Amino acid sequence: MPLRKNKRLLFLSVYPKGGSPGQRFRYELFFDDLQKAGCQIETNAFFSARVNAILYQQGKLFKKAFGVLGGLFSCVLMLNKARKADVVFVFREISPIGPAVFEWIIAKVLKKKIIYDFDDAIYLLNYSKENAFFNFLKNPSKVSLICKWAYKISCGNEFLANYARKYNQNVLVLPTVVDTEKEHNIKSDQTKEKLIIGWTGSRTTLRYLKIIEPVLQKLEEHYAFDFHVISDKPAELKLKSLKNIKFNKATEVQDLSKLHIGLMPLKNNQWTEGKCGFKAIQYSALGIAAVVSPYGVNTKIVLDQKTGFLAESQDQWFKAIEKLIKDQALRKQMGEQGIAHVARYYSKKSIQTKFFSLFDS
Q1: Half-sphere exposure (CA, 13 Å, Cβ side) for 280?
Q2: What are the tens digits of pLDDT across the range 240-264?
Q3: Which of 149, 181, 300, 310, by CA, is between 20 and 30 Å from 262?
């Protein structure tokens, strides 16, 4: 069913446009296509771009607190936009603190259809020192309520969808995707002599690199390579090969394409079961053979011994990375198969029709 012309869509998130990978690659990627289909799009974020820039900096508590007050005021003003909208799309939550007050008003008072989208197990309290400022104010129990009030729910994987279905049966599984035609369309050059192994992610996930630090230290004793960490915060690892690359949205694809081998270590718990494997998707889209922990959707994104390797023990990690270091042809072969796999299942083109179906009514 085609989208109705002039349909008014309001997209709500905690962070400003482009402020988090989840919103960039789960729905902002489709804005141009929605507008071409005749939809009118408005957005509203809890945090302004100015406040978002200081959230993870040390100190500045007064500015952060003032930013929270400003965010609450922004949400109050947003309700007028919601009143005029045909559909309200909520990514994760409208406010990062407190109960689901604004979601309740939109669903129960304004009687608007809410499409609720989430890409992590945000119904669990995931503490890290990086988000300590807001941690005591969070209310993960509100996720179940928003699920109940939603018209439709979109989840990043089956694990999350199973949780959502306890409260609402109108659930779609939509993976986080990349645009393989216009953005993630650079192929890693596996013929370059200087081997680069790498990882990308936010400061909140840097801690997972400690899992494989001993493996990389051991590999350094036998092989020459650079280890690139592409993040918004420098990694603190005892590695001679370490090179911290400051994350830059404008150059992220180019920076990633320099890698020959991409890594994604995780711990085995419910939080990581809910993750959507975006690192692995990015690696494979660029023809980079990946070595990943065998948890959650990683086992579907990385086809073991075809597009990369699944590794759990330290020995498995060492042998998988070593094999790729020594075999350029294997890296190239796995990279080609990874590109095809992502194009088929994890590309914008592959899910666009399904994504558009969220807005049918």
Answers
A1: 30
A2: 999 999 999 999 999 999 999 999 9
A3: 181
DSSP-derived secondary structure for 252-315 = HHHHHHT-SEEEE----SHHHHT---HHHHHHHHTT-EEEE-S-TTHHHHS-BTTTEEE--SHH
Sign of CA dihedral 298, 303, 304, 308: negative
Residue 212 near residue 293 (C-beta atoms within 8 A): no
Percent of the chain with pLDDT over 90: 86
Strand order in the sheet with 261-264: 242-246, 226-231, 196-200, 261-264, 289-292, 308-310
Residue 139 pLDDT: 78
Query: Does residue 134 surpass a pLDDT of 70?
Result: no
Q: How far is CA 178 from CA 29, 83, 327, 346, in A?
A: 8, 32, 28, 7
Confidence band for 2, pLDDT divided at 50, 70 and 90: low
pTM score, whole prediction:
0.93
H helix intervals, the chain: 21-26, 31-36, 49-52, 61-84, 101-104, 132-135, 142-149, 158-164, 213-220, 252-257, 270-273, 278-285, 298-301, 314-326, 328-345, 348-356
CATH number of 196-345: 3.40.50.2000
What is the rounded distance in angstroms from the CA atom of residue 75 to the CA atom of residue 94? Answer: 8
| Count of alpha carbons within 13 angstroms of residue 337, beta-carbon side | 17
Rounded to whole angstroms, what are the CA distances from 139 to 100, 143, 245, 257?
9, 8, 34, 38
pLDDT band at 127 (very low <50, low <70, confident <90, very high): low
Domain boundaries 8-176+349-359, corresponding CATH code: 3.40.50.2000
Spell out the residues 6+ positions from residue 132 whose beta carbon is closer than 8 angstroms to its own.
none
Determine the pLDDT at residue 262: 98
Look over the chain and give the mean of its residue pLDDT values, rounded to a whole number: 94
| 130-142 average pLDDT score | 65
**Residue bearing tokens 């945000």:** 122
Q: How far is CA 282 from CA 85, 176, 288, 339, 347, in A?
A: 34, 10, 8, 10, 10
Half-sphere exposure of residue 356: CA atoms within 13 angstroms, side-chain side: 19
